[in-house]
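Q: Here's a chain of 520 amino acids. Please give me its 3D structure as tokens.
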Amino acid sequence: MRFCRRFAGFGLVFAALTSCAGNLVLVDTVGPDAGVPGCDGLGRSRCVDGLSLGARFGCAVLGDQTVWCWGRNDEAQLGYESGDLCPERLATGQTRAVACHMYPLQVTGLTGADAVSAGGAHACARLTSGELRCWGGNSRGQLGTGSALPSRAPVSVIGLHGVVSFAAGAGHTCAVVEGGQLYCWGANDRGQLGVDVVPNQCGTDGAILPCARTPVMVPDITDAIEVVVGDAHTCVRTTGGRVSCWGNNTDGQLGAGSAGASPVPRPQAVLLGLSPLGGILSLAAGSQHTCARRADGAVLCWGLHDRGQLGVAIPVRFAPCAHACIPTAVPIVGYEGVATGVDPDGGGGDGGAPLDAAPSDAVARDGATSDVSAPRDAGPARDASSDAADVTPPDVQITIDAGQNAAPEEAPTVVSISAGGAFSCLSLSDRTVRCWGTNRTYELGNGRMNEGGAALTTVIASPGSASTNPLQGVQGVESGGATSCARLTDRTLKCWGTNEGGALGVGDVTERNGPVSVTW
């Protein structure tokens, strides 16, 4: 679940922040569609300015400021009525039929949108006025309307204006407003709203859980600029580049150096050693893991790591937790770890760091070798705020291999990161994508279906052609539960992963083993 925000100027880079259970994505746009390369001004297929993926459904903001959604529609999360039924496999091995729509259609009654975020079974869009409209399932109050009734039509979130960043999760939603305050609403059974006490009780799946049907302000958050959410945890990035998280922490997804069954209902600083993690440029939240892109080029992830979603070897245990409860550097071979600050189009992007599959030994910036086959502490972080200027940045041993004869300055840098259910992806300045983690339903887009693992895998455009036909022309990448999409420079989409419920938007439910174009 992610939020995408449009910026004037076609050169600006797509930056992913987010969740499988989703988050924030920055995208570029150009005002009017007419005359824009790759956009015909009439056929909407080439006018995508932003997208977000939820649990087996996705939504896109088009150049005319409308929102179009596709996929599963059992709780009206597509924002329109559909008569289609799609087969869905159950854990028991049986199959059931669920409401769906297998290619995008326009969300009814919604215009003037400039951002969208898709969650578990609901979605929200921000209007150019700064208001937030949500639709879909509402059993936990995640629409923020004051009721528990679902809504096919987009409805206004009560009392929320000047939205800067927002994210829809499995059963809760959060938004940063002008001034840096953060508001959350929906389920609070794991403390994901950032408050101890909430005003309501919501019935869902036969259980009663604490919830808030209207936005509540998260205390002690006054300088937030980005929010991302997972299944039941929430993280914010501040103006100083620091990160705080709260909610479910069973797998260390809060990054505070501990893990446990008890929820953490108040914001806690993400730590790297004894110091707060700092210098962060963007975030991404998966179901039960979180990733961050740092100004020095490092990509750091923490939380559940049973499928290789953190990008390092899968050990028996992380110390001191069963999983990685502190940020762990994703080992990416060949890149010097220095952020460029310049996007490949010459716009104002905040370019970053890493890439390809990690070997057992990586070359550090000082020329020494270091074993990266086991998880390691990335070292103390340099915070972007002035009060942490004396903290020394770590020797980040992650790089991207630009080729045998390439000069160091030719190595591509990381443009965006995204996190799905049990996998993660990044897009690079060379316009390609790398993913790692589970691959049970083609999440890695490499033409195979297997468990995948920690090694970074090239997403390719056709099966078996990684060396000759990589997925190219990528502006940014966005991930959902078991699906990812790349937005290309011509403003089209290519998606891969599961196609249950029509999640790929190609007009059918046939599984694909590599990226395919969304059908409009």
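Q: Can you summarize the key feature?
A: Residues 1-38, 40-44, 334-409 have pLDDT under 50 and may be disordered.
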